[in-house]
Amino acid sequence: MSNYSNSTELTITDNSNEWINLIEESIAKKQIKYYDYNHFNNIQEIGFGNFGKVYRTNWKSYHGHLALKSFFNFNAMAKEIVNELKLQREIDFHENIIRFYGITTGIINI
Ligand SMILES: Nc1ncnc2c1ncn2[C@@H]1O[C@H](COP(=O)(O)OP(=O)(O)OP(=O)(O)O)[C@@H](O)[C@H]1O
């Protein structure tokens, strides 16, 4: 039997899903709360930015309004989203900083 001690291992690395995996893991560990999209109602577009549209919505029987932020390309944005969440956690002690509640997935059809 021969031993190819100096053989080179060809490794193909694909980091494109690394950030998606991190978000999914955080949801699985309940570090990020996942909301069922079916519980949102009365969805109305209120603005848009470079990365997606923003909607005003209600959730279940909660009477206040929430902002739902959508992304045109979540996969391409995942790294920036993780970074935003880290930054948000640093400063969420201040009352003027809006709270991050969690994530949902769905196709907005209004
Ligand atoms: N929590 C919120 N409550 C009310 N309106 C909001 C809220 N978040 C965003 N908006 C509205 O949606 C618009 C887009 O917001 P978004 O955060 O996506 O982009 P931006 O911060 O304006 O710019 P960028 O695309 O560079 O991030 C805002 O300009 C605002 O009008």
TrEMBL record:
The keyword Nucleotide-binding applies. InterPro entries: Kinase-like_dom_sf, Prot_kinase_dom, Protein_kinase_ATP_BS. GO terms for molecular function: ATP binding; protein kinase activity. It comes from the Eukaryota. Residues 40-110 form the Protein kinase domain. Keywords: ATP-binding, Nucleotide-binding. PROSITE patterns: PROTEIN_KINASE_ATP, PROTEIN_KINASE_DOM. ATP binds at residue 69. The keyword Nucleotide-binding applies. This is Protein kinase domain-containing protein. It comes from Rhizophagus irregularis (strain DAOM 181602 / DAOM 197198 / MUCL 43194).
